[in-house]
Amino acid sequence: MSQLSGLTAALRDGAAGPLGQFGRAPDYARPAAVLILLTDEPDPAVLFTERAGGLRAHAGQISFPGGGAETGETPVATALREACEEVGLDAGLVTVLGQLPTAWVPASGYEVTPVVARWSEPLPLAPVDPGEVANVLQLRISQLSDPATRVTATVPGGYRGPGFQLGDLFIWGMTAHLLDVTLRVAGWEQSWDRDREVPVPGRFLRD
Question: Signal peptide: which range, if any (predicted)?
Answer without folding.
Answer: none
